[in-house]
Amino acid sequence: MTDKTITINITDDDENLIAKVDKGQVAEVYSKKQSENYGIKNIFKTQLGTPTNNNLNVEYRNGTGNWSTGTSNAPSGYGTWVNFVGYGGDYTETNSWIAQFLFPTVLGDFYFRNKSGKDAWSSTYKVITSKDYTSLSKIKENIEDYKESALELINKLNIVKYDRIDTEQKGVIGILADADTTNECFLSPTKDYIDVYQTIFVLAKSTQELSKQINELMLEIKELKKITTSD
To answer: How much is the pTM?
Structure first.
């Protein structure tokens, strides 16, 4: 597997670059003033150990740490987490504005989620996954043919056009993750966004099914032509 470097750019509200974080969690601070204002300077030097109460939802401090299989609200297994707590001050559950990066040890996946205000955590989004890097059979098990009718799944989808209320995007074409017509094969494990990787291969299988139907029809037409010619 080719090694990939993951780089995270951190900017302020005016899109000024504050810090750059690579896969080894090394920060390049771009100015002393910015590092003091945003608390970047010491984040990667501060080792927090395991999360408070073994629960990532109640971790309100700047710094890095590790979780294990018994940690609540973290990806399964083991991994390293990084907290960026906004604007300094007293880090309590009510005023912590947190960006949280999660790096599981298994296969190099990368997750992100954020928090603003008391108990207000976003979903955990898988930003990067190891399956973006390789599809070799050696990292897979329980391999079997996908037997569902992909064409039927595609035909059931309700394609919509919508405006996003959380952004300025208008006239977006897509599908709804929580619609009854959207099969779980199109969805992420959390079922709140579309898994583009899986969707591509459902589309590929539907194309194969269409190709098979077309070939069968062509054979029927050929046989019919023979009958009409013989008459």
So the answer is: 0.45
